[in-house]
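Input.
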Amino acid sequence: SFLSQSVLDAQSIRSSEDAFLDHLIGGIEDYGAPKIIAHAPRAFIDLNRSTDELDPALISGLKNNIRNPRISSGLGVIPRVVSHGKSIYRGKLNLEQAKARIEHYWEPYHTDLSKLLKRAQSIFGQSLLIDMHSMPHEAVSTQSSILKSPEIVVGDRFGMSSDPEFTNRVISILKQHNFRVAKNTPFAGAFITKHHGKVKERIHALQLEIDRSLYMDEEQIQPHSGLEELKSKLFPALIQISSIIYKSNKIAAE
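Output.
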């Protein structure tokens, strides 16, 4: 099993996951927004990486000539480390194990997501993916006593994965619901927005990173009293966002 291969306990392995986001967006499908929930732990396989981002320091049989900073830091499609650089495994994995994870988890997720986006685009003329993630508070915390850190970071890969009109409308809606919002800094979007955002084909993709400290104890990975408060504030914004494109074109995914 995955746990038996790891030097970490289950709690440590969970430190990289986007915990409780399924709860925060739960019910959005009742408003016409299809959603896809990732069921494989991010420490097991990272759906927000390309399948060619395989780490030779973890997977045997690969050439060690990688010039990719994500892979070098252990954050490829099969991660070598979790938060704070903690190693996941006792030894190496073989290439067949890596390919099996990609085949059974990565490929179905992206195939289904692509079908949803294309179907919406064919019906409504354009589609919008909201790729939901969570971020450690330390990633956005500021030393300034004047500036408060953003609660949500909206990423459109600097205009490459979404038409700026949609990016700005999403940011505007979040601000209307009293969220502090940043754009592309420190997270502009990764593989999911890059791969699925096809602006010329009128398929737009935005990444939303939510500060974990708003709703959970980051060390214990347990929700606190802010979870329901955040959902009551975020959910109406997501409903509004889901109706941006022709009031009916609604795609939400995690």
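The radius of gyration is 18 Å.
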